[in-house]
Amino acid sequence: MLLASLPFYPLVSFLLLILFAKRLSWRLASAISVGAMALTALVSGLLVFELSNSSSHFISVDLWHWFSLSSQQRMAEVNVSFYLDGLSAVMISVVSGVGFLIHLFAAAYMKDDANFSRFMAYMNLFIVAMLILVLADNLVLLYLGWEGVGLCSFLLIGFWYQEQANVLAARKAFIVTRIGDTSMAIGLFWLFSSFGELNITAVSELIRGVGSSEIGFSLQESTDIYWIALLLLGGAVGKSAQLPLQTWLPDAMAGPTPVSALIHAATMVTAGVYLIARMHSVFLFAPEVMNYVAWLGAITLLLAGLAALAQTDIKRVLAYSTMSQIGYMMLALGAGAWSAGVFHLMTHAFFKALLFLTAGAVILALHHQQNIFKMGGLLKRLPFESALFVVGLICLMALPGTSGFFSKEAIIAELWLSTTAGPALWWCAIIGALLTSIYSCRLFFLAFLGNERFTEKLHIEKASLMRSALLILALLSLFGGLISLDLSEVFFKIKAEELISVNEPSWLHTIAIATPFVGILFSWFYFKNYRVDSNLEDGVKTNLTASEHRFAIFCRNGLGFDSLYDVLLIKPYQLLAKLNRRDFIDQTMMSTAWYVGLWHDVMTMIQNGNLRWYLAAFGLAIMTLIGVSIL
Amino acid sequence: MLTDLATIDSLFYLAATVAVIASLKVVTGSNTVHALLYLVVSLLAVAVCFYLMGAPFAAGLEVIVYAGAILVLFVFAVLMFGLGKDETINAPKSKSVANMFGAMLLAFALLLELTVIINNAQIQQTLQANVVSSKAVGIMLYGPYLLAVEIASFLLLAGLLAGYHYAKPDVQGSQL
Amino acid sequence: MTTIPLFHVLVLSSLLFAIGFIGVVARKNTLFILMSLEVMLNAVGVAFIGAGSAWQQADGQVMFILILTLAAAEVAVGLALLIRMQKKYRSLDIDLLNEMRG
Amino acid sequence: MLTTAHSQASLNIEIISVILPQLIIAFGIALALLLVAWKRSQRTIALFTGAVMLIALVANVSLLTIQPTAVTQLLKVDSYSAFAFSLVLISALVSLHMSHQFLKAHIEVHDEYYLLLMLLVLGAGILVTSNHFASLFLGFELLSISLVGLVGYHRESNFSVESGFKYLILSATASSFMLLGIAFIYSVTGNMSFDANVPNEIYHQQDLRLFFEMGILLFISGIAFKLSIAPFHFWTPDVYQGAPTPVTLLMATISKVAMFVVLVKCVVAQNYLLYDNVQLLLMILAVASMLMGNILALKQQNLKRLIGYSSIAHMGYLLIVVIVLSGESLSFTWQSVLFYLSAYVVANLSIFMVMAAIQSQCSSKVGQLLQYKEELLLSDLRGLFWRIPSHALLVILAVLSLAGIPLTMGFIGKFYILSQATIAHAWWLIVTLVIGSGIGLAYYLPIIFTLFEKEDCTELQANKRPIIEHFLVYSFIIIGLLLGIFPDVVSQFIVSNPM
Amino acid sequence: MTLTFIMLALLFAGALAWFSENRWQGCAKWLALIVLALLATVFTIFVISHDQPFDNLQVLTRVSWIQTFNIEYSIALDQLSIVLITLTWLLAIICVLVSWQEIKQKAGFYYFNLLATIAGIIGVFVAVDMFLFFFFWEVMLLPMTAIIAIWGHEKRHFAALKFFIFTQVSSLFMLVAIIATGYFHLLVTGELSFHYLDWLALDMPLSLTQYLMLGFFIAFAVKLPSVPVHSWLPDAHTQAPTAGSVLLAGVLLKTGAYGLIRFVIFLFPQASMQFAPIAATLAVISIVYGAKMAFAQQDFKRLVAYSSISHMGFVMLALFAFNSIAFQGAIITMIAHGLSSAALFSMAGMIYLRIHSRNLTDMGGFWQSAPRMGGFALAFAGAAFGLPGLANFIGEFFSLVGVFQVMPTFAIIAALGLIGSAIYGMVLFQSSFQGTAKQEILDLSHRELLICSSLFLMLLVIGLYPNLLLNFSFGV
C-alpha cells in the first residue's frame, strides 16, 4: 500500500497547487509542495528499508487493470501496477531524495516569481511522472511516465515563456526527445508482436527462457531482439541526450536552475540509463546493440567533454558535463557493468544536483548572469557557495574519496575486460576523465578565481532553506560513494561470472586514479590567466580572442550538430511545409473546379443570343449526329 | 419529238429542277416581292410533282392554299406594312434583268410541262392508274383522321389567336 | 405504282429542305427566313406525298393537308410577329434580336 | 394496291369517356370563345378556365387505372398518359393562378391568353395520348404555336419580340426536321401508327435503312429540341428568360412532360433501341445534356436562365432511363419516367411560384399600372428566408429536389434512374450523372445560400401576400416533403397495365 | 420505437426552438440544452433497460416504408452504435454550450439546424436498411451545411459548397453500390432487399464485391477523410462556427469510420482484405501528410483540421489491418479524437470570441492572462499528440500495436506521425499561449470551464481506464 501511495503525495500537491494557483501565498504553496516531497522521500525511505528487509527481492502492487492486449499467443495484461526492486529502489531514492532537496532549494530560489505555485506544481508533477516511470511494472506504464516527464520538462524549460528563446528551447527539447520516444514506441510494438507481452518481468523471463535453451533462439527471434533493443536504445538516447539526439540538452538550460538540477541533471536524463538497465535482458541477447550502447556512450562522453571545454555559460558547461557523465553510464551499461552504471547514476545525481544548485545560487547572486567570463573572484565574495561548488567539482572529477571516484572507478574497472567494450573504450573513458577534470578546472578558475569581472552589487541571499539543501547534497556527494548497492538480484548474467582480475594489467588502476590529477595539473598551467587574472581587461580580452578560433566556436556550438540537423531536417521540413502551405492536393482538386469554370466560359460564348447561330448549331448538330451514326 | 421524251419520269425531274432552282432563287433573292414570286413558282412546280406522283388532290391544295392563300398573306403583309423596303444590307445583289429572265424561264418550263401532260394521253393513262383519289383522302380525313382534323382546327385557332395578339394595336395609355 | 422511284422523291425533298434550311440560317431578313421556312415545310410535304404514293395510301396526303394547316398557322403568327418587330425596331434584321445571351 | 386496314373509328360512349379530359378542354375552348363574346372580364375568363381544368382533372382521375384503350388509331389512352395529363393539368392550374396574378392588374382583358393556355393544355393532352405520328405532330404543333403566342405575350417587354421570334423560328425549324424524319420513317415503314411493326427487310436494304435511321435521328432531334436536350438546347435559356414567368413555367413543365412521355411511348412502341445507332445517338444526347446543362448553369445570375439550363441537365438524366430501357422492365421504366417527371414538375412549380410572387411584389407601380419586374436575378432572393420563411422553404425544397437530395422527390427520382442504369450496367452514364450532379450542386446550393444571406430590402412582406398564394405555398411544401418521404403515394398511381 | 421517438423529438424540439425564439429572445438555447439532456437520459435508460444484450445488432423497429423498392424503415442498435451515439450526445451538449455566446443572429433557426443534424447523425448510426442509411447520411448533411453557410466565417459559402459537393458526389457512388447490391440480392434470391442483415447473409462473388466495396469506400473515405479527398475538410472546419467544427470533427467524421466498419469491412470482408494494402497506404499518407500540413498552417482551426486528417488516418489504417487489437484501437481513436478535436475547436472558438481572429500570428502569450485556458489548451494539445494517460494515446497505441502485427512497415511509417503530431501540437500551443503576450484576454468563464473540464475529464478517464470502452466486443 505504501508503494501504491508513493506517487500520490506529489500528485495531490500538484492538483492543489494548480487549482488554487493564484490564491496560495508563497508560504502555503511551498509548504504544500515541499511537504509532499518530504512525505514522498520519507515513504521511499521506508520502502527501501522494507525491501531490504523483506525476503523477496521485490515488492509489487496492482492499482487497477488498465487494458489488455490479446495476441495470438497470449493475453497481455497491462495494468497500472508498481514494481519495486533494487534498481527502482535506487531510482526512487534518488528521485524523491534529491527531488526533495531540490524542491527545498527551489522554494527559496523561486520565491519572487509571480508564478511560483505553478512552478512548484510542475515540479511535483514531474516527480509523479518520474516515480511512475521508475516504478512501472510494464512498458506501457513506463512509457506513460516517460512521456510525462517529457511534458514536464517541456513545461519547465519553457517556464519563462515570454522569452521566445525559452519557448524554442522547450519545443526543441520536446520534439527531439519525442523522436526518441517514437523509436521506443515502435520498439514496444515490436516487442509485443514478437513476445506477446509487455510486462517487464514477463518479458525478461520470456527472453531468458528463450536464451537458456540449449540450441538458442531462432534466427528470426534474434533479429527481432536486435531491432527491439536498437529501438529501445533510440528511446534511451533521446531521453538521455546521447548522440545523435543530444542537441536539446544544452538549450534546455533555459529553464530555471532548479529545473536543470532536477530534470536535466539528476533524474530525467538518466531515465534512458534506467530504461536500458531495466531492459537489460533484452540487451543481453542483442550483443551488437550492447556494443552500440557502449560506443555511443564513449563518443558522447568525448564529444560532450570537448564541447564543455568551449562553453561560456556556466549552466551549459554543466549540461555538457551531464551529457558526458551519462555517456559514462551508457558506456558502463554497454560494457555490461550494470551495477556500476546505476551506481554512477546515483552519485552523479548527487553531485550534479549540487553543482547546478550552487551554480543557481551564484547566478541568483549575480542577477541572472550566467556567462563565466563575466564572473571571477567569487571565491572571496561567495565563500559558502564556492566551497560547495568545489565539492561538487571534485566529485565530478572523481578525485579519490569522493562518491564520483567510487562510481567512476567501478565503471573504468569493468571496461578493460568487458566482452563488449574493451581497451579502446577504456582509453576513451580515461580521456574522458581527463577532459572532465580540465573543463572542471577551467570553470572553477574562470568563475571563482581571478579578478571580479562584474560590476553589479552582489545579491546575497542567505536563505537557510537553500543553504541547508545544498549542504545535505554536498554531504551526499562526498559520502554517497559509501552507500553499497547490491543489485545482483536485479541483473541477470548471461553466462557464469568469470574471474576478471587475471589478465588485467596492473597499471590500469594507477592511470585511472592519476588521470584527474593530470588534468588539474594541466589546467593549472594552461588556464593560468584565468586563475591569476592579473590584468583584468587585457586578460579577458586576450583569452577571449585567443580562444575565438574556429574550433572553439565549433565546440561551443555543440560540435555542429545543431546546424547539421538544421540543414538536414528542420529546414527541409519547414521549406516543404511552407511550399505546400496551400496543400497541392487541394489545389489540384480546385483546379478541376477551375477547369469546369473554363468550360463554362467557353460554352457561354457559344450561347451568344444570335438566332442564326442557334439555327446553324442546330443544323451542325444534326450533321454531326448523322455523321456519327453513319460511321 | 417532244412528246416522245415526255415520260412521267422526265417530267417529274424537270418539275423538280424547276422547284429546286426557284427555291434557290427564293433563298438568295434580294427583292422581297421577287422572292415571293419565285416561291410561287416553286410551289407550282411542286404541285406539278404532286400531280405526277398521283396526288392531284394534294396538287390542287398546294396551288390553292399554299400558293394562293398563304403566299398572298405574305404579299399582303409585305405590301401593307411596307416590309419590302427593309432590305438588309448584306443581302446578295443581283441584276433585276437576269431575275426577270430567270423567272420567266422557269415559269415557261412549267407551262410547257403542263401542256405536255395534258396533251399526252399515255401519261394521263398512267397517272390515272396510280392516283390516290381525293375520295380516298376524304374518307381517311373523316374516318380515322377525324380527330386530327379537329385538332388541326384548334391549331389554326391557336395560330389565329397568337397572330391576333401580336398584331393588334397597342391600347392607348396602357402599359400592357 | 408510279414509275418515279421513292428514293428520288426523297432526294428531291431533302434537296428542297436543305435549300430551305440554308435560307433560314443564312438570311438576315426575317421575311426571308419565314419564306425559307415555308420552303422547308413544303419539302416535307413532297416527302409525304411521295411516300404516300409509293405505298398507295391516302395517309401521305392527309399528312400533307395537316402540314398545310401548320404552315398557315405558322405564317399567321410569324407575320404578326414580323409586324411587331418592324414597329419596334424599324428593321427586319434578325441579328438585332440578340439581347438575351449568356 | 396496298391499303392499310384502318379499323373504322367508332366513337362510342366508352371511347369518349376515355378522352373525356381532352374533350372537356376542347369544349372549354369553344365555350370560352362564346364567353368572350358574352362578357369580357378578366375574372370571369380566369375562373372559367380554372373550372374547365379542374373538371378535366377530376375526369382524369378515373382514368388513372384504366386499361390501355385505343381511340381511333390516333390516340391511345392508358394509365401512364392519364398520369402525365394529370401532371399537365396541375401545372396548368398553378400557372393559371400565377398568370392571373400577373395579368389582373391590367385594364386590358386578356382573353387570348387564357385561350392559348387551354390550347396548350389540349396540345399536351393530345401529345401524351398520341399513338400515331400524325397526332404527335399535331399535338406538338398545337403546343408550339400556343407557346409562341404566350412566349412573347408581354408585348411591352423588351424581350417579347425576341423571345417570340426565337421560339417561333427555332420551333418551326425543329418541327420541320421532325416532320422530315417522320416522312422518312413513313416512307420506309408505310405506316405511321406507333403500333405498326417495322418491316424486317429494312435491316437488309442498305439505302432504306439509311433513310430509316436518318428519319429516326431527325425525329428524335425534333423532340430533343422541345425537350431542350443538348445540342438542341440553345433556345432554352433565352426563351425562358424572355417569356413571362407563368409561361416559362408552362415551358418547363407541360411541354417537357408531354414531350417526354410521347418520346418514351414512341421509342417503346417502335423498339428503336434495337438499332445500335439510335442507342448511341441517345447516349450522346444524354451525356451532352448532363454535362452541358450543368456547366452552362454555373455562375448564372439570372434565375430563369438558370432553371432553363438546369432543365437541360434534367432531361439528360431522364434520357438515361430511355437508353437503358428493356422489354422486361417496361412498367418500371414508366414508373421511373413518370415519377421523375412529377418530381421535376413539383420542383419547378414550387420555384416558379415563389419567383412569380417576388416579381409581382418587386414590381414598381407606374400610375395605375404595375411595371412588371422583368429580370429576376439571384440577388433578388437575398434574405428571403428571414422575411418569408414559407416561400424560402419552398424554394429550398425545390432546389434540393432538383439537386436530388433526400427528403425530396428529386432524390427518389434519381434513385429510380440510378436503379435503372445499375440494372442495365450503364456505368459510364452513371459516372456522367454523378459528375453532372456534382457540378449541379455548385449552382443549386448558392441559390439556397442566397436565401439565407442578410436581408437588405424589405419589399416583400409576408402579410401582404394573397391567401391563395399562401395556401399554394404551404400545400406545395407539404406535398414536396410528404412525397419525398413517402414516394409510394405517387408511385401507386403509376400502376402498370398490360400494354 | 424509442429511438424513432428520440429522433422525432429532436426535430420537433428544433422546430419549437425556432418558433419560440421569435417570441422569447434567448429561449432556444435553453430549450435545446434541456431537450438534449432529457433525450440523452431517455436514451441511456432505454439502453440500460433493454433486455437483450447489444453484442450483436438488435433490430428494434422494422416497418415497411417504400414498397416499390421493398425499402423498410429499419433501425437497430449494437455496441458500436451505442458508443458512437453516446459520443454524439456528449458533443451535442458541448455544441449547445459553445454556441451559447457565439450565436446571436437567428439563434432559433440555428438550434433547429443543430438538433436536426444530431437527429440525422443518430439516424446514421442506427439505420440498418441501406436506403434509410443513405437517407440519414444525406439528411445530416443539410443542416450541417446550413450551419456552415449561415453562421460561418468569411468564406463560409465556398466552404459549405465544397463540403457539400465532396460528400454528395462521393455518396452518389455509394448509392450506386447500394442499388447494385440490392439488385444483386434480387438476382440471387428473387427479392429486392436493401436490408443490411439480408445482405450479410448474401454470398457475393469477389469479382463483384470489389467494385461494390469501392463504391462504399469512396463515400466513407471522403467523409473520414483520407488523402487525397480530404480537401473539403480544412475549409469546412475553418469556416464553420465553433459548434459546427465541433460537430464536424467530433461526430461527422466518425460516421465515415462507422461506415467503413459496418458496411465496408463487415459486408465485404474479402474485398476489403484485398483492398487493404491500398487503403493502408492511403491511411499512412493521410497520417504523415496531415501532420505535415498541420504544421504549415497559420490558422488555428485549419491546423486542428489537418490534425484531424492525420488522426483519422490512424483509424483507417487500424481498420484495414484486420486485427482485433487494431480494431479496438480504431474505435478508441474515434472516440478520443471526437473528444480531443472537439475540445480544440471549442478552444479555437473561445479564442476567436475574445480576439476575433483565428490567426496564430495574432496570438501569443495568452497564458499570462488566461492560465486556465492555457492549461486546458495544453492538455488538449497533449491529447492530440497522444500523451499517455489521455484517451488518444490508448487509441493510437492499440491501433499501432495491432497494425504492427500485420503490416510492420506501415506501422513504423505511421509512427512517424507521432513525431509530426508533437511538432504541430507544440506549434499550436506555443504560438498561442506562450511567447510574448500580444494582448490580454479574459480567462475561461464558468460555462467554458465546464466545457473544457468535462471534455478533459472524459479524455482522462478513457485514457486511464479504457476498459470502459474495451469491454465492448463491437461485434468482432
Overview of the structural elements:
The complex is a heteropentamer of chains A (631), B (176), C (102), D (499) and E (476). Chain B has 176 residues and is an all-alpha fold. Chain B is 78% helix and 0% strand. Chain B folds into 2 domains: 2-131, NADH-ubiquinone/plastoquinone oxidoreductase chain 6, subunit NuoJ (Four Helix Bundle (Hemerythrin (Met), subunit A)); 133-176. Chain B contains 8 helices and no strands. Chain B is flat and about 65 Å long. The mean pLDDT of chain C is 87. By secondary structure, chain D is mainly alpha-helical. Chain D has a two-stranded antiparallel sheet. In chain D, strand 1 (69-71) and strand 2 form a beta hairpin. The radius of gyration of chain D is 22 Å and the shape is globular. The chains are: A mainly alpha (631), B mainly alpha (176), C mainly alpha (102), D mainly alpha (499), E mainly alpha (476). Chains B and C meet through helix 2, helix 3, helix 4, helix 7 and helix 8 of B and helix 1, helix 2 and helix 3 of C.
Describe the SSE topology.
The complex is a heteropentamer of chains A (631), B (176), C (102), D (499) and E (476).
Chain A: H1 2-5, H2 8-19, H3 26-53, E1 58-70, E2 75-85, H4 86-109, H5 116-135, H6 139-157, H7 164-195, H8 200-212, H9 219-239, H10 248-251, H11 257-266, H12 271-278, H13 280-284, H14 287-309, H15 314-334, H16 338-365, H17 378-381, H18 383-397, H19 403-415, H20 423-448, H21 464-479, H22 507-526, H23 528-532, H24 536-547, H25 550-556, H26 561-579, H27 584-606, H28 611-630
Antiparallel strand pairs in A: 1-2
Helix pairs in contact in A: 2-3, 2-5, 3-4, 3-5, 4-5, 4-11, 4-16, 4-21, 5-6, 6-7, 6-11, 7-9, 9-12, 9-14, 11-16, 14-15, 14-20, 14-25, 15-16, 15-19, 15-20, 16-18, 16-19, 16-21, 18-20, 18-21, 19-22, 20-22
Chain B: H1 2-5, H2 8-28, H3 32-52, H4 56-81, H5 96-119, H6 121-130, H7 134-142, H8 146-167
Chain E: H1 2-23, H2 27-49, E1 58-66, E2 71-77, H3 79-102, H4 107-126, H5 130-139, H6 141-151, H7 156-189, H8 196-201, H9 206-223, H10 232-239, H11 242-265, H12 269-296, H13 300-319, H14 324-355, H15 366-369, H16 371-384, H17 391-406, H18 408-433, H19 446-464, H20 467-470
Helix pairs in contact in E: 1-2, 1-4, 2-3, 2-4, 3-4, 3-11, 3-14, 4-5, 4-6, 4-11, 5-7, 6-7, 7-9, 7-10, 9-11, 9-12, 10-11, 10-13, 11-13, 11-14, 12-13, 12-18, 13-14, 13-17, 13-18, 14-16, 14-17, 14-19, 16-18, 16-19, 17-18, 17-19
